[in-house]
């Protein structure tokens, strides 16, 4: 890609390190996003990579497109009031995205739910949103959930976020991911409707509303 014409200061490109910091990702993850064509980039005469601000904003906007917020949810802040609790679901199955949306809407109407459909987007959104609870599938495109969980645990900024894993894998199939699942509640997807509300209530420190 040819280097664009000079731009105003607010349109100047990012460095790879700046994008990594902005999205809460490792530099290598940003490099892979560039290689896949997800971000527009070019190299300076000195060989340094520069990334278009517009492409970063577009990438974030596309990933936030799956966000949902109940109509009666409180704003994040209002006159200094505590923001609404946030839950981030990182799940590539539309069926289970919709099922979690239904459960949260019915039992936790005060909670702001946002959704990412792949691992890199989820990691970036987690860095931006600082959710109270992360619900993460183990098997994800882009970066698998176990690697994502390990990455989250390595960042001090996510220490306040509670984790819940959902998976279609049975206990034997989860063995390769045991390193990431230690002390994390795991919901087998066939039991999601029965188990997730209670675990989410514990993670949020609140009670689930009875189903209407």
Tell me briefly what this model is.
This protein is of the alpha/beta class and 212 residues long. It has helices at 16-23, 27-35, 53-64, 94-107, 119-129, 145-153, 178-181, 192-204; strands spanning 14-15, 41-43, 49-51, 86-90, 112-116, 133-137, 162-167, 186-188. The protein has eight helices and eight strands.
Which characteristics define this entry?
212 residues, alpha/beta, Multidrug-efflux Transporter Regulator, Chain: A, Domain 2, Rossmann fold, 2 domains, five-stranded parallel beta sheet, three-stranded antiparallel beta sheet, globular
Q: What count of structural domains?
A: 2
- Overall mean pLDDT score? 80
- CATH architecture heading of the largest domain: 3-Layer(aba) Sandwich
Total E-strand runs:
8
Low-pLDDT segments: 66-80
* Coarse shape: globular
Major sheet strand order: 5-4-6-7-8
Radius of gyration: 19 Å
Structural class: alpha/beta
CATH class of the largest domain: Alpha Beta
Summarize the main sheet.
Answer: 5 strands, parallel
Q: Give the fraction of residues assigned to helices.
A: 25-40%
By CATH, the superfamily of the largest domain comes out as: Response regulator
Distance between the amino and carboxyl termini: 55 Å
CATH topology of the largest domain: Rossmann fold
The sequence of SSEs as H and E is EHHEEHEHEHEHEHEH
